[in-house]
């Protein structure tokens, strides 16, 4: 079976937000009457990207949030609900790639799990590079198809003027790298399955599963879900793949899990 060579999880600091956006869970983000006067819990919402090295090229999975987040998100109001305020200068994506010694010209593919502001925020960095930008067919159709500057967490400033190749269905993309169709969060959200020689299978869920508490079982939805039926189906699809492959699950925004992973620039998986 074909395998990738190396995976580097790139931590890019954190946004902060009301937990309810990420988790609609009784007793956690939804409280009973004896706690009705308590403030809503605000939590860290970590952001990460992933560099996958294969014999047929390097993939960057997602691009995190931009340096100019406050200004760029201004017209949307998103900066009030998801401030990217727990990030140091050396945690922005461009700094991280520099620390890793990875030039933009070395990246062959930039695959975006979906085109929300915290995943496509640095896509424009690759505008004049050789990197091929890839997203799901339905995601591109939606993201370029609405009127105005933004729709929910899709912000055209992040990706306008860029050319995207698209995939649909579950796609064997490069050796050891499979893109998995997991809609629900958005119409075209994807997860990525990577098979490594030593570390085995890893599944990067992106926002198909926000955090371990979302995964369950039972699966717990979030306030930001485009289609609840698809969300549940995608979580169970991923659970089936995990059971078949004994995969390590890496969730989209899990504030506890991010500290348990081997993180770039020092750590990696092979």
Automatic annotation (TrEMBL):
SMART domains named among the record's database cross-references: Lactamase_B
Keyword Zinc in annotation: yes
Record's protein name: N-acyl homoserine lactonase family protein
Taxonomic path: Bacteria, Bacillati, Actinomycetota, Actinomycetes, Pseudonocardiales
Metallo-beta-lactamase domain boundaries: 46-253
Family: Belongs to the metallo-beta-lactamase superfamily.
Keywords: Hydrolase, Metal-binding, Zinc
Domain of life the protein comes from: Bacteria
């Amino acid at each position: 079976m074909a395998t990738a060579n190396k995976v580097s999880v790139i931590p890019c600091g954190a946004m902060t937000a009301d937990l309810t956006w990420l988790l609609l869970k009784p007793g956690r983000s939804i409280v009973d009457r004896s706690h009705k006067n308590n403030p809503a819990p605000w939590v860290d919402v970590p952001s990460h990207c992933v560099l996958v090295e294969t014999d047929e090229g390097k993939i960057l999975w997602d691009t995190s949030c931009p340096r100019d987040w406050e200004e760029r998100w201004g017209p949307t109001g998103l900066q009030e609900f998801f401030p990217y305020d727990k990030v140091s200068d050396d945690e922005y994506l461009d700094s991280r790639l520099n620390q890793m010694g990875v030039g933009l010209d070395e990246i062959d593919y930039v695959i975006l799990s979906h085109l929300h502001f915290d995943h496509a925020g640095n896509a424009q960095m690759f505008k004049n590079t050789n990197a091929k930008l890839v997203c799901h067919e339905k995601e591109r159709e939606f993201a370029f198809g609405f009127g105005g500057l933004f729709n929910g967490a899709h912000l055209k400033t992040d990706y306008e003027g860029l050319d995207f190749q698209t995939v649909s269905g579950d796609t064997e993309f490069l050796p050891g790298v499979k893109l998995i169709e997991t809609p629900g969060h958005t119409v075209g959200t994807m997860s990525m399955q990577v098979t490594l020689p030593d570390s085995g299978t890893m599944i990067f869920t992106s926002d198909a599963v926000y955090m371990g508490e979302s995964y369950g079982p039972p699966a717990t939805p979030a306030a930001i879900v485009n289609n609840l039926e698809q969300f549940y189906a995608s979580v169970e699809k991923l659970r089936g793949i995990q059971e078949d492959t004994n995969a390590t699950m890496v969730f989209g925004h899990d504030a506890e899990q991010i500290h348990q992973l081997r993180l770039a620039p020092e750590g990696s998986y092979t």
